[in-house]
Fold this protein.
Amino acid sequence: MDIIEINKVLSNQVRINILKWLKFPKENFPSPLPFPDFGVSVGLIHKKAGLSQSTISEYLNMLHRCNLLICTRNGKSTYYKRNESEILKYLVTLSNEL
């Protein structure tokens, strides 16, 4: 786990918002979600964030590379959900380090 890299990724409010929204997807995105076990589609995240598709895709890739998100492809669609175990590991590591 690279705490510095995760901290860099979390230094952006939209990326933090994405993690917040995905914590409670049923409350933050239109229901019903097509594949709730897979997470939330890039399109729904893009629509909620109000930024370009390429920017949101890059933000999601950054969060995924740090293992904060789990990515699942279903056909042509990509879905994201939080990686709760990795987020907890990050918080514990951060707490122990500081």
In short: The chain has one domain: 3-97. Residues 84-97 form the longest helix (14 residues). DSSP finds six helices and three strands in the chain.
